[in-house]
Amino acid sequence: MLSEMGGAMGKASEPILRFAPSPNGYLHLGHAFSALFTADAARRLGGRMLVRIEDIDLDRSREEFTRAIFDDLHWLGLEWEEPVRVQSAHFADYVAAAGRLAALGLTYPCFCTRSEIRQAADDRTDPEGAPLYPGTCRRLSADERAARIAAGELHALRLDIAAAAARTGPLEWRELGRNLEGSRNVAAHPEPWGDVVVVRKQTPTSYHLSVVVDDALQGVTHVTRGRDLFEATAIHRLLQALLGLPAPAWCHHRLIVDADMHKLAKSAGSVSLRDLREAGWTAAEVRRRLGFDRPG
């Protein structure tokens, strides 16, 4: 299956882009900017825009939020192809990819809790500021791992970053300019992330694994997303190389911030598009304020 992903993408005859929100809350202006940016990029490249629902977090995802996403995008005047890929309907694809990594000997079970990781990290952090996992369970013997799994201990699967990077050698990605004009090659350095989770304890995948599998399966040629995900691209390039998947071009756009210069976020209670709509805002006004005066 994984080899077929690469072949499908390699035959792509036109640019394919995607807007991939998570249905764990209502969209805000930051999401609107990203969706409009992607639609505008697809128009300028003469390509297609897909919508993907990234709902692997089953505890937080809600069908009402998925419906609201479609309502908001329609309100903004955007169109996309059907059917929409919904990640929770495709866990088998991610399980197959995780199995490929395991067959390469690059994953190991991790039994650590968040508090244990925080304590062991000793104030060291990853590029997102989260406690840096120090590789505690990587040092467990095969017998101890097997015994703990047999005892029913919940565990995640982590990628041995050092071993994985040694297998692929140096990697880079193509980063497009602000207006998709020009590009530069960026060296991918996944090591600062430590041994990232590729399969969660209670979910058969992770964001990093799902996104590279989906992009390959859907033939995505250009990934447009916020600047806050720039550093994560190193992990995605590594996974693509390990799984034999082609690499799209990336364009990490600016973020929409509040009056205190903080990125808009659902978790921070940023004003949603539906709230703005109820307050009298029009889609044209949203487009104008975000710099998209023309239809996407």
Task: Please describe what this structure looks like.
By secondary structure, this protein is an alpha/beta fold. The chain has one domain: 3-Layer(aba) Sandwich (Rossmann fold), CATH 3.40.50.620. The strands form four sheets. A three-stranded parallel β-sheet has the order 1-2-3. Strands 4-5-8 form a three-stranded antiparallel β-sheet. A two-stranded antiparallel sheet has the order 6-7. Strand 2, helix 3 and strand 3 form a beta-alpha-beta unit. Helix 8 packs across helix 9. The longest helix is centred in the first third of the chain and has 17 residues. The two termini are 34 Å apart. The relative contact order is 0.20.
SSE topology:
Layout: H1 2-10, E1 16-19, H2 29-45, E2 48-53, H3 63-75, E3 85-86, H4 91-103, E4 107-110, H5 114-121, H6 142-150, E5 156-159, H7 161-168, E6 171-176, E7 183-188, E8 197-199, H8 207-217, E9 222-226, H9 233-243, E10 249-253, H10 273-278, H11 283-290
Parallel strand pairs: 1-2, 2-3, 9-10
Antiparallel strand pairs: 4-5, 5-8, 6-7
Taking all Cα atoms into account, the compactness measure Rg is 20 Å
Shape: globular
Strand content: 15-25%
Order of helices and strands: HEHEHEHEHHEHEEEHEHEHH
Distance between the termini: 34 Å
Number of domains: 1
What's the CATH architecture name?
3-Layer(aba) Sandwich
CATH topology: Rossmann fold
Characteristics of this structure?
Rossmann fold; 11 helices; three-stranded parallel β-sheet; alpha/beta; three-stranded antiparallel β-sheet; disordered N terminus; 296 residues; 10 strands; globular
